[in-house]
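Quarterly update, task 2.4: 4AD-bound model.
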Amino acid sequence: MKRQKIKALLEAGRPQDDVLVKGWVRTRRGSKKVAFIELNDGSTLDNLQLVVDGEAACFAQVEKLSTGAAMAARGRLVPSQGRGQTLELQVAEVVVYGGADEKYPLQKKGHSLEFLREIAHLRPRTNTFGAVFRLRHALAYGIHKFFHERGFYYVHTPIITTSDCEGAGQMFQVTTLPLASGAPPDFAADFFGKPAYLTVSGQLEGELFALALGEIYTFGPTFRAENSNTPRHLAEFWMIEPEMAFYDLDDNMDLAEDFLKSIILHCMSECPRDLAFLNDRYQKDLLDTLKNVTESRFARITYSEAIEILGKSGETFEFPTHWGADLQTEHERYLTEKHFRRPVIVYNYPKAIKAFYMRQNDDGRTVAAMDVLFPRIGEMIGGSQREERLEVLSSRIRELGLPEASYQWYLDTRRFGTAPHSGFGLGFERTLQFITGMGNIRDVIPFPRTPGSAEF
Ligand code: 4AD
Ligand code: MG
């Protein structure tokens, strides 16, 4: 007989004569006459209550079960006598796969998120992380669905690369050279015959495909060796990078806004139970905030307007603002949480603080960049219209002292059939942080990698 998932049984809500479920014991209680087990199989936040009569043949086995044990139970699914659930399973047979003794660390509730990060096997079995990781799946699926329905193609860009997309030098080097020998590394003798790195972004490769397939997106892991120990930075994170031929900056902003609203709505409709739990447990206005974002029109202001608003705000910021300085998280949060009270798209940033590939505006000092800022998170998306003019782009590369030779394959797109195009990168974990209300980005990725920490 095939096992049935608790989610499907509870959603169907019907009594059934013969049901087989398999999962992990959350709690067991009872007396010599009857035992109650709360069983969770990971398909949903809700447990199924198992009821085992003291007369049943399997009662002796059940009495020994404790929190954490893995088991199967077969019996009749009937309307529940007790309160708190609609259905319960009257158990006839059980199989115990693996017990768990009193050393199982999840005996009492309320472990801190930090503590759980250190106990790899336990974390996904908690209500909180079950909810977070079901939402992580829903978000990933919602993203693919959004693009697929609009005719975008999913492109797999390389994880190992030899060019620095952001030009910011925050890359992890990949090498097979014997570093311990102490000899100066000879990269010509390295695996790829030259220095290679883990990618910080798939954008440059993505542009080549957009300029052939029209509208594409990437969705993969990206790596940044920046020493940022903050609740919003990871050394390994996932990024979604759509890239579109024949889009200007306005088209890019329209897509970003539609995209964010659509994927949030998708999570709300796929995981209402998990979101309600996170709302109650961690952030009382989570559901309202999500709804507000999907219903509001994002504010759109230029960088210069942002600087003006921040200057007049009367706030004391740790980093003072002036034209030319990059916006810090505190500024982004002021704009989204206090001034506009909704997401804000800031565009036309000073060219000196943005990457080489962004399209230069006619004013000579700004580029057609856009960042989408969210309440609580700050920057969720970074993107731009791309510089499609060969001359302008190559002189910018030279001006910044970037290794021009290693960008020739990229510059070829501007030599042959160049066209206006745009794109952006969405931080997957920052988006999930916003949707789940988790305060720390480490709590929305299964195995976080941060400076000084790469456990499991
Ligand atoms: O703004 P970024 O650096 O943009 C790019 O990499 C462009 N190539 C994207 C493009 O236009 N195709 O990064 C994009 C997003 C950020 O807005 C942020 O959400 C996320 O990636 N991000 C991080 N998330 C977690 N940890 C980090 N260290 C991150 N760095 C960037
Ligand atoms: Mg950015």
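Highlight for this quarter: The longest strand covers residues 16-30.
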